[in-house]
Amino acid sequence: MTRQEAIDFIGMGTRTGKLATASPTGKPHVAPVWFVVDGDDLVFTTNEGTVKGRNLRANPHAAVTVDISEYPYAFAVVRGPVTLERQAPDLLAWTTKIAERYVPPRLAPDFGKRNAVDGEALCRLHLTHITGAVDIAL
Questions:
Q1: Tens of pLDDT along 95-122?
Q2: Domain that holds residue 95
Q3: pLDDT at residue 112, as a whole number
Q4: CA dist., res. 85 & res. 73, Å (int)
Q5: Which residues, including other chains, have CB under 8 Å from residue 30's CB and lie 6 or more apart?
Q6: Which of 120, 114, 116 is nearest to 49 (CA)?
Q7: Sites in the chain below the pLDDT cut of 50
Q8: Whole-number Å distance between alpha carbons of 127 and 42
């Protein structure tokens, strides 16, 4: 996969990302995330009190993988530094945009409001390393 093919792949449909972070002591953690691609960034939110939120504060680097788990299989992995913005002025716009990808259109505004709450951080994973493959089993 080229860089652009991998970006297109991760941004297609309702594929959920699997976000990998590490604690200050190096303990790995993986959690599913909803996200959207914005240029060279993968945008998602997380509550600062979650394991992933605490890990990203302590170690602002992460990886996300997206895959197709049916034959002939495909995946993409992105890695890079992550910025977290507390009380982002555009948090509601981003939570709604993310929801629009995953829920029926009529529900997106409510999901956006539900996720634009105190303690929720706007996160941007800068896509510095991208790899992927399609038709793995062929």
A1: 999 999 999 999 999 999 999 999 999 9
A2: 3-134
A3: 96
A4: 35
A5: 18, 19, 20, 21
A6: 120
A7: none
A8: 7
Its pTM stands at 0.94
For residue 102, what is the domain's CATH number?
Answer: 2.30.110.10
- The residue with tokens 């297609």 is 12
For residues 75 and 65, the answer to whether their CB atoms sit within 8 Å is yes
Q: How many structural domains does the chain have?
A: 1
d(CA 74, CA 54): 31
One-letter amino acid at 38 equals D
State residue 75's pLDDT score.
97
The SS3 assignment for 52 reads: helix
Q: What is the DSSP string of 59-127?
A: S-EEEEEEEE-STT-EEEEEEEEEEEEET-TTHHHHHHHHHHHHS-GGGHHHHHHHHS-TTEEEEEEE-
